[in-house]
Amino acid sequence: MRYLAGIPPLVLSVLLFAHLSRAEPLITPGFAVNYYLSDIDGTYQPYGVYLPDPYDPGVLHPVVLHLHGFGGRLSGFSAWQMDWADAHGWILAHPDGRGSNNYDGIGEDDLFRVLDDLKLRYHVDEDRIYLTGGSMGGHGSFRMPLRFPHVFTAGAPIAGWTDYREFYGHFYEQADPPRLPEYVDPSRRPLLETASSLWQVENAKYVWLLIGYGTWDYVNPPSNAEQIVQRLQEFGYTGYTARGDWGGHGAGYDIEEVYNYFRTKVRVRRPPAPVYVTNTLKYNRGYWLRLDALRSNLQWARLAARAVGSTIEVEASNVARYTLLAEENPVDLSGPVTVYTNGLLSYQGVPGGDLTIAAQMDAGYRIVGWQPADDAALPAVRKRHGLQGPLHDAFLSRFVVTYGTAGSRAETERNRRDALRFCAEWNHWMVAHWSWQTPKERRDNWWEPPYPAKAGAYIPETQPLLTPIPDTTVTDEQLSGANLVLFGDAQTHHLIAQIADALPIRLQENGVRLGSRLYTGPTVNYVFIAPNPLNPQRYVVVSRGYLSSRIDPYRHPGGAVGKDLEALPFYWPDYVVWNSAREPARTVQAPFVYLPETYLEAGYFDDEWRLDDDPPATTPFFSAEPVGDAYPAPVEIALVAEDRPGGFGVARTEYALDGGAWTEYTGPIRVALPGEHVLQFRSVDRCGRFFYETQGGRTRGLDAPGNVEPTRRITFRVRQSGG
């Protein structure tokens, strides 16, 4: 057995092999540090790679991605690992993951860019791509095969976290109540579920997992792995091996066992019965299934299919639109195909390629059928894969940071300072991994370039850095090719003023209006994401102020500067309004602070990128047909409520019978008394918004009151049976 303990550090001489260009791909066997050019921020990002000796460019080579833990960077490989790769012809890669970013958000993007670069340089076997790692690397090795089961053949996660209900409490939570398990910030909850592999275990149907953990692990306790195993068993899956080793964090990480496990695993190309679960359009594909629209946002959806001959039977839950992809589909979509969705005939014909099916709904928003989608019926601007939000998605493709210069000199300086602080935190945490110098003369402007810092390992001396630009210098090319991050407001930023009327939030002088609620004052700040009205294929982020823990290398450990950005994927919804006069609360990891303590409101836009103001609809159903003008006694009335597609679902239904008190509906209403009756009913939806109130000196987020359906009233008669 070969345990990953005490791997020798990478010697500096490997930097002599660094390549900053793809023009001359390295084909020499051995270890090197390669670089790819990131489209996001124009920086060169490193990764380690070992090519087997001999390397045959005419042969397909499996790839193992080794994911480092928190606080780590890319590394080399032990002599045993390199000998093993030589003997079996495998490529070993060590992504940097943009440092400590949980292989989520930009850390996830790094893995795919490394894969892209490997495929450009070398002959990669795309049916044999594997991941392994411990601790934070275990998070990624759990998460990636479950989010992208059609890409990764197998994962070997060791000591990774899988459930925010365990992990969030001892790494990100506020130090004092209210806190888990009784409370978690409601605007973060759906994002934390997305980050938690436990919610996507069903996607593991055709992937393999080798799960390891220490039975005395107090960092990521065994429950993280044990819950995954329990779910795998509940689904009847057998493609996993799990073992708990006596010991603490990372115990029993046997790399020889991992490699030998991978050797026998090959990607399933055309699975006959794939399934995919998700709560976001960002993660929307499993094999030949693609989910294109959710029925209710922030809620989990499930899409499953079974191919039998030329027939495809689909099960869709919380799905409004989906696509059957021709790629790697066991059914030939160039020939005759029959499709059923939830038992209803949805298509019969020759698709000739990808086939998109959409739900058909009645006036009460109930699904009454499925048929080929009509793109002309879609709204011009809508949430879709790649334009679904939330806030962090603007930082996963090319973006430009600008600050407003339309106001006074003091207002311009405030906007510039906020933009510079953000860029300094981004450049440290995402790009340069600096060791900070602290000359006294830079104490009050350390965040202005040139920074008083020395770049970390593997960072080129000429590394480009993120720098804000004045609003008057934004070019047409940047408008068409980049997301825009705008620091300022409609009074102080030229571009914000230009697009203000087309934004989903009404901007006010010194504040903002959201529906009927007005927030104004010199300490009211906000940040939100939306499609750019000047180019709806790209995002715009409007930020009046900059909310972060304000980690200062002069007062705090320098390595922590910008660490709030680590949690971009699960901290920020579509919008936040906050009061800068409120003092953030302490967290369990000082000096980081609990930002929701400052919130006034936070939430999400609906599928048309606007505040949800559409009420649900309720349809009554009687358990029997009337006989003449009356129903035979007893009769039961079921109330079926549905929210408008693209909203956030129904919160509750309530009714009043014969003038009685309003009662929450929990099941069919039984009426046995003969005579005339009057039933009133209405439903209330969830609107995706959360209001923050101070209770007992602490701020707590609450579901905002939803949209209320106008009260409906029906009159009916009941006749005694046989009467």
> Can you tell me the CATH superfamily of the largest domain?
Alpha/Beta hydrolase fold, catalytic domain
Instruction: Please name the CATH architecture of the largest domain.
Output: 3-Layer(aba) Sandwich
Note the overall shape. globular
Q: What summary fits the major beta sheet?
A: 9 strands, mixed
What oligomeric state best describes the polypeptide chains here?
single chain
Please, what is the average pLDDT?
94
What name does CATH use for the topology of the largest domain? Rossmann fold
Q: Within the largest sheet, what's the order of strands? A: 22-19-23-28-27-29-32-40-41
Overall domain count: 4
Q: What report would you give on this structure?
A:
The protein has about 725 residues and is of the alpha+beta class. It is built from 11 helices and 42 strands. Strands 22-19-23-28-27-29-32-40-41 form a 9-stranded mixed β-sheet. A hairpin with a 2-residue loop joins β12 and β13. The radius of gyration is 28 Å and the shape is globular. Mean pLDDT is about 95; it is low at about 5-25.
Please describe the topology of this protein:
Elements: E1 30-37, E2 44-51, E3 61-67, H1 79-88, E4 91-95, H2 106-121, E5 124-134, H3 136-147, E6 154-158, H4 164-171, H5 189-195, E7 208-214, H6 223-234, E8 240-245, H7 255-263, E9 275-278, E10 285-286, E11 289-294, E12 301-308, E13 311-317, E14 319-324, E15 337-341, E16 344-349, E17 355-361, E18 367-372, E19 399-403, H8 409-432, E20 435-436, E21 453-454, E22 469-470, H9 476-481, E23 483-487, H10 494-499, E24 506-508, E25 511-514, E26 517-520, E27 524-532, E28 535-544, H11 568-571, E29 575-579, E30 585-586, E31 593-594, E32 599-603, E33 617-622, E34 631-632, E35 635-642, E36 650-657, E37 663-664, E38 669-671, E39 675-685, E40 689-695, E41 698-703, E42 712-719
Parallel strand pairs: 3-4, 3-5, 5-6, 6-7, 7-8, 13-15, 19-22, 19-23, 23-28, 34-42
Antiparallel strand pairs: 1-2, 2-4, 9-12, 10-11, 11-14, 12-13, 14-17, 15-16, 17-18, 20-21, 24-25, 25-26, 27-28, 27-29, 29-32, 30-31, 32-40, 33-35, 35-38, 36-37, 36-39, 39-42, 40-41
